[in-house]
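[recover] target loaded
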């Protein structure tokens, strides 16, 4: 049987790899792009889609998505994402995570890093890893694994990580911000492991010195130092949320590290509120005070409760440390805070990544294959709206990015982070002959986020078509619930 053919006719084609921005046709044959330019007479049986007036580019590659379910990834597909990877936290055991995703199917491509948090929790606290995002979230508030390791313990969990890398993990996900007083030597050991394996480390850094003078090492400086000392590729996750009002200094630290030759990349999302487990170390009432925040900056995700005082916050942390909450670290109503969010996205080479959160429903329901999603779903609005919001703000409203630059930040640069660990990714984030047929077609005049904290599962608007491995997942602005063409993205086994 011959491969299916689709011709996208007459769109504004963006290839961030080759710097092309112009009107052209794009021919897809099977799962690859086979022609870009004028295709005057397509072969019989070719599906022709008129995309005149629309922007055609490589689908967005999200390096930081915890929304690893059919429901969550469908929201991301409506936001233009064709590849959504769980790299900051990772999952363990890796083989089970990939097997379960493949068995259930996924609407977009998926992949995982080796989980530093799960490895440490297994060795230091006896928490059995089960390849679920929810288990990782629940363990974040467990103080038993937040301490420093003894030499035998360090060797044990480093060995677990090494085994996961050998099995094809996409690097090491390091939740250092959840064990902020652990020994800095341990972080260097992880960076050396990453460097020796030729894989990136994706880090949620520990606190900044401005926020907590008692911290063993400044989080941004630690990442830069590890990159310089080991040669590892170090990726700084969500620089906006971990830097807050100290963003300028942090970006300066990272920029200096890059200019000195270190392999440092950085990501950001366009929201002033983050989401995590209420038991996270940095939500301790005293630590919130160090950040200039208070209990009222914390909102429980499922109930919508805004925490009234420190006593209530401590109660919530004791009762269910894994419960999801929102932390308002910047006030988007304030011009100076909005400028900080803009600066994070405008930083040269900054990658857009969502930090998408799992979607849940009352009663602990964590998956739905229905579309539209059932009402009452709870998540952070960035799950549904990160990329459309970034395009709206940075291209349409402020003109900070051209469309070529937007696709560089959302597609090309994130894919390049993975080139060394997963050579198959070299065909993503590009729109040229031979590239993977992971494509987004969007309306440049209407692309926008629609999700809010009151209604967080409203899909973005303006994504007209989305193709994953050549299969239409979104057609004429409507998600197709009858297809799950997502493929695994894996590192090369060692």
């Amino acid at each position: 049987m011959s491969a299916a053919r689709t011709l996208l006719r007459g769109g504004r084609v963006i290839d961030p790899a080759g710097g092309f921005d112009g009107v052209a046709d794009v021919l897809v044959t099977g799962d690859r792009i086979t022609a870009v330019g004028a295709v005057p007479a397509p072969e019989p049986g070719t599906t022709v889609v008129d995309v005149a007036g629309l922007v055609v580019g490589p689908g967005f590659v999200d390096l930081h998505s915890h929304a690893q379910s059919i429901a969550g990834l469908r929201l991301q597909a409506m936001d233009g994402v064709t590849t959504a990877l769980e790299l900051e936290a990772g999952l363990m055991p890796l083989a089970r995570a990939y097997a379960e995703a493949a068995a259930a199917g996924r609407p977009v491509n998926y992949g995982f890093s080796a989980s530093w948090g799960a490895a440490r929790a297994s060795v230091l606290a006896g928490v059995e890893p089960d390849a679920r995002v929810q288990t990782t979230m629940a363990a974040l508030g467990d103080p038993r694994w937040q301490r420093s390791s003894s030499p035998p313990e360090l060797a044990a969990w480093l060995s677990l990580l090494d085994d996961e890398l050998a099995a094809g993990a996409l690097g090491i996900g390091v939740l250092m911000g959840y064990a902020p007083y652990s020994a800095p030597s341990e972080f260097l050991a992880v960076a050396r492991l990453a460097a020796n394996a030729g894989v990136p480390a994706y880090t949620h850094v520990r606190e900044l010195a401005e926020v907590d003078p008692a911290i063993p090492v400044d989080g941004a400086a630690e990442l830069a130092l590890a990159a310089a000392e080991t040669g590892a590729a170090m990726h700084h996750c969500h620089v906006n949320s971990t830097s807050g009002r100290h963003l300028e200094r942090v970006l300066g630290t990272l920029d200096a590290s890059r200019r000195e030759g270190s392999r440092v990349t950085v990501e950001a999302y366009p929201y002033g509120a983050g989401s995590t487990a209420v038991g996270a170390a940095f939500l301790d009432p005293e630590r919130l005070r160090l950040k200039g925040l208070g209990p009222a900056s914390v909102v429980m995700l499922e109930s919508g409760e805004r925490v009234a005082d420190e006593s209530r916050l401590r109660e919530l942390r004791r009762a269910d440390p894994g419960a999801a909450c929102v932390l308002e670290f910047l006030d988007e109503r304030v011009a100076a805070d909005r400028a900080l969010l803009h600066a994070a996205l405008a930083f040269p080479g900054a990658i857009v990544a969502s930090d998408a959160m799992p979607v849940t429903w009352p009663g602990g329901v964590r998956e739905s294959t229905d579309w539209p999603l059932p009402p009452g779903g709870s998540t952070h609005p960035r799950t549904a709206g990160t990329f459309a919001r970034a395009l709206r703000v940075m291209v349409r409203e402020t003109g900070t990015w051209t469309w070529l630059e937007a696709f560089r930040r959302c597609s090309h640069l994130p894919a390049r982070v993975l080139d060394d660990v997963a050579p198959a990714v070299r065909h993503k984030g590009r729109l040229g002959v031979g590239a993977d047929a992971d494509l987004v077609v969007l309306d440049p005049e209407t692309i926008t986020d629609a999700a809010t904290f009151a209604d967080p599962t409203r899909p973005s608007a303006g994504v007209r078509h989305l193709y994953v491995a050549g299969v239409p997942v979104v057609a004429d602005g409507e998600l197709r619930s009858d297809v799950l063409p997502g493929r695994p993205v894996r590192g090369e086994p060692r």
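[recover] notes: The chain has two domains: 5-57+433-479, 60-421.
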